[in-house]
Specification:
heterodimer, A: about 120 residues, alpha/beta, Rossmann fold, B: about 900 residues, alpha+beta, Four Helix Bundle (Hemerythrin (Met), subunit A), Alpha-Beta Plaits, 7 domains, six-stranded mixed β-sheet, 31 helices
Chain lengths: ~120, ~900
């Protein structure tokens, strides 16, 4: 069972992602923004972060930069899941240090395939 | 998914509620950036959420509102009262839609038209003052219009050009500046998601032509045909705005490749060329008309020639296209006409080879998507030493790592970025030494190049990346978003939009239906019946209840002190009476809070039909799953923890216990196996059974296997009864499976199942009749909160023992405890019960041996045992907390509990404790 953080300010999206991730047998922790994610993340081991971009207080880019520049979370894989698909958004995600980029609404199979590839599937 | 829809409605309502207030504030202080930001985020969130549901009208409207707010944020638009009116109208409409959605599960009839009109009016705000002409609502997205013009863009896909002439002609005629070709390849499992791809295709906007064909030739053997899989491909030609088509296929994601192109490219003649001087003369005639710019003359001549020369063949087809194109506006049309006239003269389309539309017309518009991956990475087979074969997702992820590492970044994130890419690559591609080495080298040299090259090699070695389809889908998706997003078009790598396409301000869209008023019909507003409460708040409430329980526990102490210390017996009695009242209320309160946390088991059950169906197919055995009682409820944590063990159990039943169909038939059973998942709720626990009508389990076989594997000793081999022997399947390292299959693995499952069930305080038992089937029964507590423990004393310390395990407390003369070999035992009610001394099990000092021993008789896993303790104390309600940190390894303790007088009590885990020698 992997531990996966879902960071998004939309409850509905968190719920949707949580269901998909938990269906793979993983443990999910939710955060509403970057700051909350960092607070909740410290002191535990993480297999994957699913991160929205546009969030109050600390957005997704900032969060990934903080993770990469810090010590504890620097190597934790991050998949950006965002409504943004403007040109340049991917580049910004890459520059911040995100490992993958998905555009909302993500198809269930797509999200699960990515989670499975990075964090495996528990109970398989 | 219903829960998800509910969540969406609740969250959207909340956001709308807040937004309405904010819009009014914005009217007063239009320059407050924080207000605009907040509103933008609200619209953005609703829009993003709505994408999960089939509510295009709502998505469209909120999207338009979001774009208006972007314009306000960027200073391109200053909101006046009339703008705010419109935005509020839009919010009211969205709110009304949410009500419809809640009531009917979908939007009403007129939603699409209303959404289009509202979105059009909102987008009209963006046009600014100068463009005065009212724009038809479908031209509402500025970035979309004219996308087909400009160099390089906009060639139709091959298959579209190869369509029957009539279909292409119809598209040419119906389409304005842009036609859209869609290749829609639905997911094979889409039927299970409730999708109807044919309906989706049929209802595409402006549909001119629809073709349905199998992706692969139909299987020759009809047995191999699976009617539950969608193996079709849909190809569509639409005469509609690309934005509308993309929006229509928004939910299909990458399954729908949407190509927008200028329909003149469809003008490709077909048939066999006849050749001959005659056609050159006709062509010369046409060329003159073309040069004169006389469209009518051109058409007339082409039609006359067509009449004179008859209708079949390549040249007449050429003439037909010329007649259709004549008089058409636009540079591309004129160029195409010239080309066709030239073709008529030559008997072939000039430069046909190059002209053939590329497979990926919009490839260059890909927003940072994976570039085409040639086999030029060298070392063709470098990737196949070890790691698993790479699937499409793995390849995409690897490509992302490469793209990320190629993108420049700030120095402080460099190390972390490389480390994370390394982690992802090794997870995705397996432990490949050369990959790890490359990353190490990159880190040492502080240059990502070696890592990038290693990923390239890996991608190249695993075969071509199938670049075209991916790039197209991605570009299409990116394009759709960028276009629909109304993002500043200058940033898009697409050709700049024609300036004339800018939408117009309000005043147009006269067909707008009246928006629901925002004051008058307030009475019809449905009352709030459900509250969405953050789980954390409920947990906080639960904690408070826990503290109350503990505080309540202090009252008996107080009563005793009143009596013993102060001699106030009367007061003590009153306190006790009060304690009884508080106790009752606390219990009710606790039950009420617990009730809030209850969710139906359907949350986990609903995914199992699919699981069993997949297993059935994979194993080649027909299996039916019957689900009963999924409406039973349990605590959220219990339900969530249930998913994994149930998956194990269902897998085991399907894989190991249901026989292959032939074997079943031979045994006189129906060929189709049945697996039953049944839940029954009781007062304080829920029973879940997974049963099958398979081959059952033979206790003798299990006994022997367990002995062979060292799970039981020789003595148990003889003594274990059949029921007890069956339970051995839950022992670590036990498996009766003859072979290891890819479905349920090696039998670590049942062990894990028991561990997981016990973690939430449940128990699992198996019952089986050889030849007739097996039932695994989970008994789970409804919640995991307050428990009753009895306090006992051993070695001078206090410990808690869960009350449900206690059978009785007895005192026996010390002499009645006999030594049997190196163990002790006592005869209670004519039965020999093993005796354990608690202080010894816990490694504590032994006190003086009294003449009479206090025995706590407990029953664990069906076994009775007696614990020698120093003294019994009272029973108390406690909130048990699991041990944390280093203490978590002490499995002989189930947890800690706070007592009324402030002491911390260690609660014993009897199961683990009695396992100690």
């Amino acid at each position: 069972m992997a531990r996966i953080m879902i960071v998004d300010d939309a409850v509905t999206v968190r719920m949707y992602h949580r269901e998909l991730v938990e269906a793979l047998g993983h443990q999910v922790v939710e955060a509403e923004n970057g700051i909350e994610a960092l607070e909740k993340a410290l002191g535990a081991d993480w297999d994957l972060f699913l991160v929205d971009i546009n969030m109050p207080k600390m957005d997704g880019y900032r969060l990934v930069r903080e993770m990469r520049a810090g010590e504890e979370l620097r190597a934790v894989p991050v998949v950006m899941v965002s409504t943004e698909a403007k040109p340049g958004d991917r580049e910004q995600a890459w520059a911040a240090g995100a490992n993958h980029y998905l555009v909302k609404p993500v198809r269930p199979e797509t999200l699960q395939a990515v989670v499975r590839a990075i964090a495996g599937e528990a109970g398989a | 998914m219903n829960a998800l829809l509910e969540q969406f409605i609740a969250e959207s309502r909340e956001l709308l509620e807040a937004a309405s207030g904010r819009f009014l504030e914005l009217e007063r202080s239009p320059d407050d950036p924080e207000l605009v930001n907040e509103l933008f985020r609200a619209m953005h969130t609703i829009k993003g959420n709505s994408g999960l549901f089939d509510v295009p009208a709502l998505t469209r409207t909120v999207h338009a509102a979001e774009d208006v707010l972007v314009a306000v944020r960027e200073g391109a638009l200053r909101l006046g009262p009339e703008h705010v009116d419109l935005l509020l109208d839009a919010m009211d409409q969205v709110s009304a839609w949410l009500d419809e959605l809640e009531r009917d599960g979908r939007l009403g009839e007129g939603a699409d038209a209303a959404g289009e009109a509202l979105a059009g009016r909102l987008r009209a705000l963006l046009g600014g003052g100068e463009a005065a002409a009212p724009a038809p609502p479908e031209e509402d997205a500025p970035a979309e219009a004219g996308a087909a013009e400009g160099p390089g863009a906009a060639l139709p896909p091959d298959w579209a050009v190869a369509l029957p002439g009539e279909a292409r002609a119809a598209a040419l005629e119906a389409a304005g500046g842009t036609a859209v070709a869609v290749e829609y390849t639905p997911d094979e499992n889409c039927f299970f998601a409730g999708d109807d791809p044919l309906q989706t295709a049929r209802s595409a906007p402006g549909l001119v032509w629809l073709g349905v064909e199998p992706r692969e030739p139909w299987p020759e053997d009809p047995e191999a045909f699976d009617p539950y899989r969608c193996v079709l491909r849909f190809r569509l030609l639409c005469a509609a705005e690309p934005g509308a088509v993309r929006e229509h296929f928004q939910y299909a994601g990458e399954e729908a490749a949407v190509h927008a192109f200028d329909p003149v490219w469809l003008a490709v003649p077909g048939g066999e060329p006849q050749g001959g001087e005659l056609w050159a003369e006709v062509a010369e005639d046409l060329r003159r008309a073309l040069a004169a710019g006389d469209a009518d003359a051109l058409r007339a001549r082409a039609e006359a020639a067509l009449e004179a020369q008859g209708g079949e063949g390549w040249e007449p087809d050429c003439l037909r296209w010329i007649a259709r194109l004549a008089g058409r506006e636009g540079e591309a049309a004129r160029a195409r006409l010239a080309l066709l006239v030239e073709a008529l003269a030559r008997g072939e389309l000039p430069g046909e080879a190059e002209e053939t539309p590329a497979a990926a017309p919009a490839g260059e518009a890909s927003a940072g998507g994976p570039a085409a991956e040639g086999p030029d990475g060298g070392e063709g087979a470098a990737g196949d030493d070890g790691g698993p074969a790479l699937d499409a997702t793995a390849r995409e992820l690897l490509a992302s790592q490469r793209d990320m590492l190629r993108t420049p970044c700030a120095a402080e994130v460099w190390d972390g970025r490389l480390a994370s890419a390394r982690a992802v690559c090794l997870r995705v591609a397996g432990e490949r030494p050369e990959l790890a080495e490359a990353f190490d080298r990159a880190r040492a040299e502080r240059d990502a190049q070696p890592a990038i090259e290693a990923i390239e090699t890996l991608l190249a070695g695993e075969g071509a990346e199938a670049p075209a389809a991916e790039a197209v889908a991605e570009a299409a998706a990116a394009g759709a978003e960028a276009a629909a997003g109304g993002a500043p078009a200058a940033a898009a790598p697409q050709p700049p939009p024609a300036p004339s396409a800018a939408p117009a301000p309000a005043g147009g869209a006269p067909a707008t239906p009246p928006a629901p008023g925002r004051g008058g019909d307030g009475a019809e507003r449905p009352r709030i019946r459900t509250l969405k409460v953050d789980l954390e708040r409920i947990d906080a409430l639960m904690d408070l209840v826990g503290e109350l329980v503990v505080a309540k526990n202090a009252l008996p102490y107080l009563a005793r002190r009143a009596e013993d210390v102060h001699g106030a017996r009367e007061l003590a009695r009153e306190i006790k009476a009060q304690h009884a009242v508080i106790h009752r209320v606390t219990e009710a309160l606790q039950a009420a809070v617990m009730q809030v946390r209850m969710i139906p088991l359907s949350h986990v059950f609903q995914r199992f039909p699919r699981l069993v169906r997949d297993l059935s197919r994979r194993l080649g055995k027909p299996i039916r799953l019957v689900v009963e009682g999924e409406e039973a409820e349990a605590d959220k944590n219990v339900v969530e923890d249930l998913a994994e063990p149930l998956v194990h159990l269902l897998r085991n039943a399907c894989d190991h216990r249901i026989e292959p169909p032939d074997e079943r038939e031979a045994a006189g059973k129906p060929r189709e196996g049945t697996v039953r998942l049944r839940a029954v709720a009781h007062d304080d626990h829920v029973v879940i059974e997974v049963s099958d009508d398979g081959r059952g389990m033979d206790p003798a076989v299990i006994r022997r296997k367990a002995y062979e594997k060292g799970v039981i000793g020789e003595q148990e081999l003889e003594s274990l009864d059949d029921q007890a022997a069956l339970q051995l399947i839950f022992a670590p390292g036990f498996s009766t499976a003859e072979r290891v299959s890819d479905v349920s693995g090696r039998g670590v499952g049942m062990d894990a199942v028991r561990a997981m069930v016990r973690r939430v305080g449940g128990e699992v038992r198996v019952h089986s009749v050889p030849g007739a089937g097996t039932t695994v029964r989970l008994v789970l507590p409804l919640s995991v909160a307050v428990s009753q423990v009895m306090i006992v004393e051993a070695g001078g310390q206090h410990f808690g023992v869960p009350v449900e395990a206690i059978r009785e407390t007895v005192r026996v003369p010390a002499a009645d405890i006999h030594r049997v070999k190196d163990r002790e035992a006592v005869v209670l009610r004519d039965r020999l019960v093993p005796v354990h001394r608690l202080h010894r099990l816990l490694g504590l000092e032994e006190g003086e041996r009294p003449e009479e021993e206090a025995l706590l008789v407990v029953r664990v896993d069906g076994e009775t045992a007696a614990l020698v303790v120093d003294r019994f104390h009272e029973g108390v309600d406690v909130i048990q907390k699991p041990l944390e940190g280093v203490m978590a390894h002490f499995t002989i303790y189930a947890g800690t509990a706070l007592l009324g007088d402030g002491r911390v009590l260690l609660v014993l885990n009897l199961r683990e404790l009695l396992r100690c020698p």
